[in-house]
């Protein structure tokens, strides 16, 4: 019995030391004390084993001993097996900052650090702009007119966007811009997402492009000239990066610039001769100034000794001789302005380089530093706004659309996608807002930008698919009345651009995060490059302590022992504790994958993607918890928090489960499963009761529905009709209507109304004549049914309306 007690004491003591990452000396003490006690009072065998363990810890763990023999050998081995980091990768790794994403890699996330990013809300100017200017702009859009009749925004909308400064949200007021916060930019784009074309048109100039590049790197002359003109729309910018042979691998651009001299107006000018072909460039067809990325060469050494000067960025006026611009692509589902740019022997002076000659060769760094912010805002905000509109439309439609004498919102087959839409919209809103808030606190979230871009646009894909299913024929028949179908067909654009989701998920989130966010990997690689044994020893054994710590934390917390302390209420605390548990498991699995696969992990994209999925879901859950913690809770919101967190944590566990099943070392996979999930998976799919509760709330006039639709366009005072406003008005009177529906339907079923009164309008008139309802009820129902019928109606057109070449129309007899 004493032997068992001492063994348990040794195990518990070691786990406690490991959880705290207390170092070799405390572990040595635990083993030595229990070993001596066992040797003297219990089992000699156990005592010898424990003392041998103590000796091993002393030799390998105490710095004064290990540095003499172990560390040099480990350093030599590390230099052989460590992955080579190219200059391109290093630039990307060094771009941006590490914040909460780094905490999730530690296995012991400090929630205080996340909560310290206080949300100060919007300024009065930002709120007024969101309430007024954004509503006016949204009210000037109709998806069908923009997509099929104009292939562009209306002229009056273009004029309004320029006049009100929509293109200058990121430009400081000193240059004539609005100087908005990241949160305000995000909310503006969410509101404008009622039209995908409008959102893209406003979002791109305020994202990666000339404006942001000039702000950060431009010369004072460039800023003074261009920023005021960009802010008020006198200049429309575009940025040419991608081309026929350089998409996701943007560093492989074949476009070139050569330093040369050319005579202009009788004067010899030092400049660049550019040859390039770009495509998929948003706003290119109408851009007045083109940002261009190219590889610069100086074969005659006019600027210095180097011939290959690297990726460089320039700003070129549209009317520059030799540049072909103005044609357009036809993006799927959306007519946002997008097109190719070509140039043959285009000469520009050196002062067109963004930042001047001293920024030659800095183009890739400039791009990745800007992308860490822009990618956090534009597409994630668009996806979030789309999610909220789709939810508002779908909840309203499901309540007014009746089948089998009941609203389809009462059918569980419809409730399931409706609740899923609500949860994904809730998560998306929290994630993009809270990440924008960290940007306002000075962070440049490189890894979270990849998480948000890929995850939220995938959520958008799911939400739009669910919305289409709920709407049925209403959404598959295009026309001016269809508010959903064009946006649905345009969704692949968001999936593909700014880093295709396949690449982002498989290569970027974990591939970049494993080095950038890990507490020790970057230090180890830096020690290797500097050939610094001391720095390597410190980083490597700190890393080893982290591995043991995460193993102990994952195991004990998985067994329900020593759960993390979290600063949340009783509703959110269980989920925050499990984020901490899974963070420890994730950290352990990340280290195990890197150690067992080494540099080949880059090629094992499916494993890397699963690790990225764990990180992504933990990040999204954290942002959702912070939003709950700081927000004004509304009735029914707790159900969404439960659904959302269970959904995200369940996905994180699923990704870990698949990782264990697919690691090349089956023994390692089985061991990790035991340590990380000793009691199996904790989270299952959200329960049906939650689904029903949420679906009911978002398809009625409730506080939860109002909360989810905040800062969307709900007014009906624009120049275009607003379906969301109509649905909201109908839901506000839904209770009265449902009582009348029940009364009239019951009478019809009993034979108290004529059998041929089949339409709702006929039943109302018959019920009025029979004295079953009052005259004011009949008036109410007549007006309501007219409104409902209009919302259920789809468009039809002339037989040859969609034929662009009328000579090719087949005049069938039936037509």
UniProtKB/TrEMBL annotation:
Residues covered by the Acyl-CoA dehydrogenase/oxidase N-terminal domain: 128-233
Residues in Acyl-CoA oxidase/dehydrogenase middle domain copies: 238-338
Swiss-Prot/TrEMBL cofactor(s): FAD
InterPro entries associated with the record: Acyl-CoA_dehydrogenase, Acyl-CoA_Oxase/DH_mid-dom, Acyl-CoA_Oxase/DH_mid-dom_sf, AcylCo_DH-like_C, AcylCo_DH/oxidase_C, AcylCoA_DH/ox_N, AcylCoA_DH/ox_N_sf, AcylCoA_DH/oxidase_NM_dom_sf
Catalytic reactions on record: a long-chain 2,3-saturated fatty acyl-CoA + oxidized [electron-transfer flavoprotein] + H(+) = a long-chain (2E)-enoyl-CoA + reduced [electron-transfer flavoprotein]; a medium-chain 2,3-saturated fatty acyl-CoA + oxidized [electron-transfer flavoprotein] + H(+) = a medium-chain (2E)-enoyl-CoA + reduced [electron-transfer flavoprotein]
The family this protein is said to belong to: Belongs to the acyl-CoA dehydrogenase family.
Annotated protein name in UniProt: Acyl-coenzyme A dehydrogenase
